[in-house]
Design goal:
Blueprint: E1 11-21, E2 25-34, E3 38-42, E4 54-59, E5 69-76, E6 80-85
Antiparallel strand pairs: 1-2, 1-4, 2-3, 3-6, 4-5, 5-6
């Protein structure tokens, strides 16, 4: 029996995302899913910032320039990391 403690429903998404941080400078990764709270980024064996790090992200491949957003690394999975949107209200 699985107990899902997530606040937001996940939607599968196969999209590319650019992640910027001092550790990796700039990296392109794929998103596995997205929700109102954040995204899960498939990283594999690539270097990635540690839990608690703030990264800058921008979706790629859209017909317009996507906004650049700050996100926090909040979870490590077997093949990637969960990123949470940083809210403007604190």
């Amino acid at each position: 029996m699985s107990i899902d403690k997530r606040d937001h429903a996940r939607t599968l998404l196969n999209a590319q995302i650019k992640v910027t941080h001092d550790l990796l400078e700039e990296g392109l990764f794929y998103v596995r899913d997205i929700s109102d709270g954040g995204v899960f980024v498939i990283v594999g064996e690539a270097k990635f910032p540690t839990l608690g790090s703030v990264v800058t992200v921008q979706m790629q491949g859209l017909p317009f320039e996507a906004p650049i957003l700050d996100m926090v690394v909040v979870r490590k999975g077997a093949d990637g990391f969960g990123l949470k949107f940083v809210s403007d209200d604190g």
